[in-house]
Design goal:
This protein is of the alpha+beta class. The protein is about 30% helix and about 25% strand.
Length: about 110
């Protein structure tokens, strides 16, 4: 099982989408059990944002969780959203949650 760390943006968005809180929590638990299962690695997205090193997981058709796995991020050495310096390898950092467009623009 991985440890969780929640960025402020994730916590704010979790409060914003309180109607999906239970579904988001279940997805977070699935990610912590195995962050590589049913998630996708991200790269450059439209608008020029570079999400290399990040992963995405679907909550439903339109909602996504964006996160970083510290062990993967360290091995890549190209993650722009990494906050893993003082974290253990078995840590997942949840960056944001929200509708597809908002999540991929990290807002």
């Amino acid at each position: 099982m991985y440890q969780a760390f929640y960025e402020d943006r994730f916590v704010r968005n979790l409060a914003r989408y309180s109607s999906l809180r239970q579904r988001i929590q279940r997805k977070v638990e699935q990610i912590l059990a195995d962050p590589y299962d049913r998630t996708e690695r991200l790269g450059r997205v439209s608008g020029g944002l570079d999400l290399r090193g990040c992963r995405s997981s679907r909550i439903d058709r339109n909602f996504r969780i964006i996160f970083v796995i510290c062990e993967e991020c360290r091995s890549m050495k190209e993650c722009y959203y990494c906050f893993c310096e003082d974290k253990e390898d078995k840590t997942v950092i949840f960056l944001t949650v929200g509708p597809h467009v908002r999540a991929y623009t990290m807002s």
